[in-house]
Amino acid sequence: MLKDVLEELYSKYNRARLIKPDPLQFVYKYAEAADMEIVGFLAADLAYGRVQQIERSLTTLFALMGESPWAFVCDFNEDRREILSAFKHRFTTGADISDLLGLLRRVLLEYESIEEFFLRGYDPADTNIVPALTTFCASLSQMYAGEHKGQVSRGLKYLLASPERHSPCKRLNLFLRWMVRDDRVDAGLWKSVDKAKLIVPLDVHMGRLCRILGLYSQKTASLAAALKITESFLEIQPSDPVKYDFALSRIGILEDCTGRRRSRCDICELFDYCLRRSDWEE
Predict the structure, then answer these.
(1) What is the full per-residue pLDDT of the chain (282 aa) written as tens digits?
(2) 9: containing domain
(3) CB neighbours of residue 222 within 10 Å
(4) Total number of domains in the chain
(5) Is residue 143 part of a domain?
(6) Does residue 282 sit within a domain?
(7) Domain for residue 69, yes or no?
(8) Which of 11, 167, 203, 233 is most solvent-facing, going by the fewest CB within 10 Å?
(9) pTM, full prediction
(10) How many angstroms separate the Cα of 45 from the Cα of each of 31, 126, 181, 192, 220?
């Protein structure tokens, strides 16, 4: 059964010692929940590109922010914007990060945490987290637009990828997984959101593995695809549809799975599923 295979993968990979090089590692460099929440949000938001590049960028960013990223955000001002001016991660600039931190400063001052701000749009009766995530992104975008002649910068739009734009919202869903779930890997800082409402953080690697498992057939990473995959996992684990996300992603990150046949494939738990694929490359 597929559930048995997934449970085997969960047991094998869902371990704290395997978190590195995942950007989640940066959350655990801090002891205070307030710092961990801010770090989690920024680490997830910059989780695009090559793993090594993400690590370098986040190491640089958090060094610039000092001992307490939460305090850095709460006291964010023009001097601190200047501190970040030279930062760059692929096409995200220091100015983009500064725009985001300016918004987070307002959130923290009024609501004390990102969680409390997020809960404004969260309804436990909703089928999933999409409506709350849409409200979250829209509220931050409107906050920014109100100070910038009704416009939202391209860089900020990317950092606040909203379900409204049919994005799979991989990075924000990743942040929610870290905050809501609580096990040997995920931090579980948020206590008011039901993990059954979470959406699978869908990227190219997760999409490939889910096609191998027969959970969906699309090749485009879209919101519709993320929802379809999540529905499939809900049938397997109704109370925790993203339970296997970290373990499955380790196959790509740690085992360097590309979807093509290699000698190491024979010992992979997903080998039998790969053999059934019509596009299996010898």
Answers:
(1) 889 999 999 999 999 999 999 999 999 999 999 999 999 999 999 999 999 999 999 999 999 999 999 999 999 999 999 999 999 999 999 999 999 999 999 999 999 999 999 999 999 999 999 999 999 999 999 999 999 999 999 999 999 999 998 999 999 999 999 999 999 999 999 999 999 999 999 988 888 888 888 888 877 889 999 999 999 999 999 999 999 999 999 887 766 676 677 767 777 777 777 767 655 554
(2) 2-275
(3) 14
(4) 1
(5) yes
(6) no
(7) yes
(8) 11
(9) 0.94
(10) 21, 24, 18, 22, 20
